[in-house]
Every structure is written in C-alpha cells, then in structure tokens.
Amino acid sequence: MIAPLLALGSSLAYGCADFPGGLGAREAHVLRTVMIAAPASLVVELLLWPVLGASFGSGTLGWGAASGVASAAAFVLLYRTLAIGPMNVLSPVTALVSAALPVGVGLLQGERLAATGLLGLPLALVAVVLVSAGHGAGAARPSRTALLLTFGAGAAIALQLIFLHQAPSDSGVAPLIVGRAVSSAVTLAAAGAMYRRLGPERPAYAMSACAGVLDSTANLLLLLAARSGDLAVIAVIVTLYPAGTVLLARGVLAVRIHRGQLVGLGTAAVAVGLLALT
Predict the structure, then answer these.
(1) Tag placement on the chain: N or C end, fewer CB within 10 Å?
(2) Cβ atoms of 126 and 260 closer than 8 Å
(3) Half-sphere exposure of 37 (CA within 13 A, CB side)
C-alpha cells in the first residue's frame, strides 16, 4: 500500500504548488514565475542528494533530461492555463488528459488491475471532475487557446510521469536533479529569448519559490511511488491534485467548498482506498 500513499502525498503537494503558482502567474508573465519556481525546486533536489544518493548513468541522464523538458512545458502551460481560466472548466480537463496517457502506457506494458482497481480508476476520474469543476462549471466557456493550453499541460504532466517511471530504480534522486536542471535551463533560455515580451511586472518571488519547493516535494514522492507501484494506479491518484488546491484555497482564502466538490472529495477518498487495495 506504500505506493498509493506516496502517490496521494504527491497529489496533495502538486495541488498545493498550483495554488501559489497560479496566483504568481497573475502578477507577472508566466515565465517570470517559472524562472523563480524551477531553480527553487532544483535547490531542494540538490539538498536531497547527500540524503538519498544519486547515480548518473546513461539511462538516468536520458530519462531525466526528457522529464525535464516535459516539466518545463508543464510549468509554463499549466500556470498560464490557471492564469487565464476558467479554472472550473480547464482544471478537470488537464487532470483527465494527464491521467489517460500514463494509464494507457501502463496497461500496454502489461500491468493488470484487480477488481478494486477497476472500480477505483473510474471513481478517481469522476472525483477529479467534481473537485476541480466547482460551482457553475458551465457558466463560462473557455477559448480555443485556453483549451489547447489545457491539453498541452495535461500531456506534458503525463509525459513527465512516464519518463520518471522509466528511469533506473537504483538512481536515487539523480533523475529529479537532471530533470530540474534541464527544465531550469530551458526556462531561462526561453525567458532570455522573450525578454522584451515579458513585461515590466516583477514576479511574486515568495509565491513562485513556494510553488517550486512544493513541486520538488511532489516530484520526489512521485518518483518513489513510481518505483514501487503500477504506473496506471499511480497516475490516476496523482491526478487528484485539484483536491489539494481546493483545500488550500479554503484554508487560506476562505473560498467556499461547494456541494459538488464535497462529493468529489468523498469520492476521491473512496477511490484512493480502493486503489490502495489493488
């Protein structure tokens, strides 16, 4: 049962990271936010090196670098999506897309689910939609650009998970370090190329750094979960991350949790329990 619990912790950390990340992206250009978040995440992962060890073999470098490119794309696309909204429509789409690809890959690789897993998977997907849709989900219609960004963000998140799952299990935190170094370099290069288009607004330094630290925590738990469990199960649990955002918004901003979201949180708890028994 350790893998589902690690995946649940990763999901909560991702959801909490989205909260300051999305707020920061409203204060300045999304690349300014990511320029702070990505290096902050790298610092945390470097601090974990002496504790958890790291082995930089060729497989680790390749899969770690691939996850880094996907991570950089996920950062930019997701925070931009959260900034332009409507979140109650776009968040569940992102989560569902990010779940579908890893589940498909896991099943193609020969993973088999018990009866509890076959019941828990659809319940988790329903929970994602209920939790992230919120109140009046049909009141606002997203633009075509917003939908494209949403699908791109979901695909990038999915690819990051798939690439980390492929990294050697004895490599310690090396895949995370390589991935974050690559994503930081990609982000800084993109920011340099687009410097004149970033605008004069300063990034929200504290919120951006907080998002990076929480994201690195989520990545670590995700890596540990991926090494000890099935990709299909881990992916679906991780996509419950909107629950973390909703709970944090409730605690910090006193945002009301609507009836549908409460049902979604309860459904998520049941789904995680069933998946833990798989």
Answers:
(1) N
(2) no
(3) 37
